């Protein structure tokens, strides 16, 4: 962590995010808590252009960023020569952080841990629907029949988790805590057999996971090697009547291959992310009865975004006290994060 300046006054902090959500992310009580530790510039700044940043940006040691903050390029950072820390009150910082941030030695923290909670809860709900083949059952009721037939029990289903990310691990923990007795599989090349066992899962290769799972839930980051990871071949291994859940990144799944599998009635799909996003009007996935598409709402929404503000404020407090940051992001780790 870069050395703290040795001046006695409170460090200056500037908030830059979409003003439409800033009051929800940082409501009055959190801004008051911040003001006990920093000299908080009025705002938030209009985030559409760095030119609209407040004059205090030139003196800022801390930037509290969020959705809508422009990318921190060398030109932007040149306007903030004293900037030492970026506390991102949102999830991914990939679109925010440039090489210039690391070259300046600026500390970066993300509230991704706080954002993971709603994603985990949402994913667990989708998996609950998927193991019960909810969309298939609902489609059978479309003709008004009282008895839809084909009822299936959910207990003991095999659920495959693709990627031991923070969300993937949280989903595994949630499934372990349930009393449904699910068999849990994990595919992640960076996880050992022993680590998978500690997570309550059996580590297998992706192909085996697909062959054995009634539900496949995607939690890998989007990387060159994961783009199109679940292609026609992998999707074809999922047993008939199985389901795919994706709350990670749409491009990890081959959209056309998934469309074919769902159109045939072989698979269900529960998608909070798609490729492209959003899907064009009239795309088959939007109308197939065994596909649920939601508009990227698994992460913090509405009142939930206050969690992100609380996390960022706590990180500011830790930095001011000289303590390690819980959400620290490093240059080396960034490529493999969501």
UniProtKB/TrEMBL annotation:
InterPro entries membership? D-2-hydroxyacid_DH, D-isomer_DH_NAD-bd, NAD(P)-bd_dom_sf
**Keyword hit for Oxidoreductase:** yes
Which residues are in the D-isomer specific 2-hydroxyacid dehydrogenase NAD-binding domain?
125-298
Q: Which Gene3D superfamilies match?
A: NAD(P)-binding Rossmann-like Domain
- What's this protein's name? Hydroxyacid dehydrogenase
Q: What GO MF annotations does this protein's record show?
A: NAD binding; oxidoreductase activity
Tell me which SUPFAM superfamilies the record gives: Formate/glycerate dehydrogenase catalytic domain-like, NAD(P)-binding Rossmann-fold domains
Which keywords does UniProt give here?
NAD, Oxidoreductase
According to its UniProt record, which protein family does this protein belong to?
A: Belongs to the D-isomer specific 2-hydroxyacid dehydrogenase family.
